[in-house]
Amino acid sequence: MTTIARPRSSITLALALALLVAVPAAPLLAQPEKSHIANSLPPLPKQDAPWLYKGSDVPHDREWYFGTLPNGLRWAVRYNQVPPGQVSIRVRIDAGAMHEKPEEAGFAHLIEHLVFRQSKYLGESQAIPTWQRLGASFGSDTNAETTATATTFKIDLPNASDASLDESMKLLSGMVIAPTLSESDIRTEAPIVLAEKRERGGTSERLMLAMRKLMAEGQPLADHATIGSEATINGAHEASVRAFHQRWYRPENAVVVIAGDADPRLMAALITRWFGDWRGQGAITAAPDFGAPKAPPANDPLAPVGNAQVMVEPSLPRSLLYGVLRPWHEKQDTVAYNQGLMLDQVAQMIVNRRLESRARSGATYLSAHVDQQSEARSVEGTFVTITPLDGRWDAALTEVRAIIADMLQAPPSEEEIARELAEINVIFESQVQQRALQAGGKLADDLVQAVDIHETVAAPAVVHDIFRKSLPMFTPQAVHDHAKALFEGKVLRGLYITPQDKEATSDALRKALAAKVVPDPRARASAKAISFAQLPPIGKPVEPVEVKPTGLLAIEEVAFANGVKAQLWPTKDDPGRVTVKVRFGAGWRAIEAGQNAYAALAGMALVSSGEGPLGQEELESISNGRKMGFEFRIEDGVFQFSADTRDEDLADQLYLFAAKFAMPRWDAAPVLRAKAAASTQFEAFNSSPGGVLERDLRFLQRGNDPRFAMATPDQMAKATPEGFRQMWEPILAQGPIEVQIYGDFNRAKGIDALKATFGALAPRAPIAPQVLSRSIANAAPTLQPVSRYHRGDANQAAAVISWPTSGGLAGVSESRQLDVLSQIFANRMLEALREKAGAAYAPQVAADWPIDVPDGGTITAMAQMQPDMVPQFFATADAIAADLAAKPVGADELALVIEPLRQQIARASTATGFFMGLVEGGTQDSARYKLPRGLLEDYTKVTPEQLQALARHWLQADRAFRLQVLPEAKGKTAKAD
User: Fold this and answer.
1) Alpha-carbon span 371 to 383, nearest angstrom
2) How many Å apart are CA 268 and CA 623, to the nearest integer?
3) Is 165 a member of any domain?
4) 64 strand-pairing partners
5) Same domain assignment for residues 728 and 856
6) How far apart are CA 203 and CA 684, in angstroms?
7) 339 & 474 share domain
């Protein structure tokens, strides 16, 4: 039962509570009419004992219908209107990397590629353009995924009619049942798979493989990398690939899931029509044994600590992971089982809060986290991830283990338990309120995941009901018992990653893990409960001077005498959720050269530094059991706070935002912790071409403007809490404020809350004209590429070509047309570099047009590849740009871009946030309220001649900036030429 979302396939990922995001409103495009053939459809089977719930007493989610075809294929279908018109299809095959023989390593993933290459109803390379003509974008709407245990094909079909749904099911059946798998297709696709391996490989791949080998030692998971090896991929041939497909691609191993805006009877009928005649060839092959963790010998003096490993990676920050491992076993997904998971979760939340509290107050570690995981039906375990502050890994490990030991020695307090239960309850309540907003694609993915982990799904109301009825079970002793069980196991393994050779040894790590620790009770929660009623007022509540309609939908504008203005849109389309955004200041224009370190620290430290009487601990305490947030971001022309909340918490959420302006607090500890985090991460950017691009590309594209340079460790070392305050205090005090509130809230109460918070702020100082006039430069043209170097694998490189464009509201129509041009460019790059040359797995092209500033825009193409292919990238990009400028694109090529864009707009326009995003800044420039009106036409009515003119104007070879990121050579630095 999906009560608490669990990550799918990474031992080290943190456990997360799922939140839903779909927000329907009024779509810009009409939805397709159905053919009204319902009366001719066969009825759905009775749902007395659905296959997913076999052996479970979890109440069935009655919106799902289940069935099994005579050939053994299982299916599930569900009607869903989020987003309107879309139908999400998933075909899961119970065959992943662990179903491969050694000589077949990577075949499951290779077949995933080959299925899209050519099949019964699709010619070579026709799958992607065929779905583009139906409005499905490549990558986001048309995709597939291979894991250790399964391969899943995914189609999100927009604007689905009975005919397009029928066609899609036909095409998918041909792909899965009868892919061509020819020798020529294999030889074409193998280089693309190797390009993907290269792009995703290097340091990150070595780390993943090391963790698997250690944590799953002696099990198939340890040596079954999903991507395979270069030798096995190059060694793949038609006979061997067909043998794998024949062995595992059978109806008995398949599940088809459909959720979306169509009659469930039609969905079920189409599954029967296109998959009902599928027959497996030969005898059924039993699934492989995934094994169990092997305990160390009983006579080992350090037992139960098994293997421990130290991995030296000069470009990675220090990280220590240890796991208490248990064998995975089949479970009955019952209510009692899920109650046990809830108790496990509360125990984890308490210990994680204690670990975080200690880290904030000053510890030998930057962060630490406990996470229960089930990995690929092979290993179950409790994993502890620690980021030491420096080379004193043993002190950090001892401190974390001591805090955990205290949790295992004594039951937690009732207050600690109540705090975590309140956090869980608000999430479950929100899921119930937003039940109607669950996106069909997310529902389909959740069911596929349930199949993968052999569990069930449940409606949000059922989950919440089980939780509420289980509350008496959450006693201190029960939580304590589950905490102890989390750390029970016959196998304990550890991995320490360090950039420094000889800093640790495997024997030292084993001994540290086996050493006894003294429980440390100092991290137990001690903060006193605090309420908003105890906080000082922002000021005297002030009536707005004006409330007026904007002329767009039901959005209103509210103005106060102090200069604060707000946009309000109460709507019932988003039950249980209210979004609040606060825009202020001048964004990057307000940041000066030499302040880049303080800009980087703000994301972690500005909010955490507190306000009024509230430090970070108090901020967490006061929002406990509430739906509140506090995110911060810097944009080109504005700063922004944002949060998702709900009607009952809206007034207090606005108080938190307003108090940041009225009574900011400047605690030093969050700044110092942010400095430590930034310093530990800096060197990691050198580990791959992608890391160097993440670090340097924006800086280089913007003419080496120091504001956009990533702060070096030396710059971070010089940053101080006092300097942080000196920069941010005047920024918080200057310039107009715009507040957006939209979603399910009471309008009158929302205005009253504004009166008492933002309306009560003192008048704000203006932003200096010289700040507002600061421009964003573009890089100077370079006929020869600028070079940067990375310290990763020698077969990895990246190339970038970037043409400067512009920015600002006046050119918004042109910016949308440039998006179309960029997508055509991207399709051509994909065809040239991936499909034909096999040189790059995922070349990208994107247009950026800052709306809040009049400059700084770009069209950027980039790809990762082998170093010797970099010249081909630049030659290809230059040739495409010249061709786009020389002649108009063809009608069919344009349609492959326009139709997916049309459908993206249609789906996006069902969200309230879509329109509110368009009108951000409208209180300062009313022209923004007109932005939605021309959007559809700008994207879908653009002509080949207009695109050609844009290419001639912007894509000139002598205006382009070129960058290459190469493996570090002898005598080169990792930063520059």
Assistant:
1) 5
2) 46
3) yes
4) 78
5) no
6) 10
7) yes
User: What is the C-alpha to C-alpha distance for residues 179 and 144, in angstroms, rounded to an integer?
Assistant: 15
Same domain, 270 and 399: no
Q: So what's the pLDDT on residue 711?
A: 96
Classify residue 130: in a domain, yes or no.
yes
Whether pLDDT at 858 is above 70: yes
Q: Are residues 580 and 502 in the same domain?
A: no
Using DSSP bridges, classify how beta strands 737-743 and 565-570 pair: parallel, antiparallel or unpaired. Answer: parallel
Give pLDDT tens digits for 906-935. 999 999 999 999 999 999 999 999 999 999
Q: Do 239 and 325 reside in the same domain of the chain?
A: no
Residues 6+ apart with CB under 8 A from 732: 584, 585, 660, 661, 664
What are the strands, taking DSSP E only, across 328-471? 365-375, 379-388
Closest-CA residue to 670 (of 716, 610, 715, 611)? 610
Computed over its alpha carbons, how large is the radius of gyration of the chain?
29
Residue 736, token pair as written in the block: 């107009």
Reading phi first (left if > 0) and then psi (alpha if -120 to 50, else beta), residue 282 is in left
Secondary structure of 221-282 as H, E, C letters: HHHCCCCCCHHHHHCCCHHHHHHHHHHHCCHHHEEEEEEECCCHHHHHHHHHHHHCCCCCCC
Q: Are residues 253 and 315 in the same domain?
A: no
Q: Are residues 505 and 604 in the same domain?
A: no
Does residue 198 form part of some domain? yes
Nearest to 603 by CA among 728, 712, 690: 728
Q: pTM surpassing 0.90?
A: yes
How many Å apart are CA 82 and CA 80, to the nearest integer? Answer: 6
Question: What CATH number does the domain containing 805 carry?
Answer: 3.30.830.10
Pair 729, 597 in one domain: yes
293 occurs within a structural domain: no
Token pair 């200069």: residue: 563
Structure tokens at 170: 């036909």
Query: What's the pLDDT score for residue 6?
Result: 35
Total domains present in the chain: 4
Any idea of the CA torsion for 940, 944, 946, 949, to the nearest 10 degrees?
A: 150
Taking only the tens place, the pLDDT of each residue in 273-287 is 999 999 999 999 999
Average per-residue pLDDT in the chain? 93
- Confirm if 499 and 315 have CB atoms less than 8 A apart: yes
pLDDT for residue 476 is more than 90: yes
Residue 184 domain boundaries: 45-275
Cα angle for residues 267, 269, 272 (degrees, 5° grid): 110
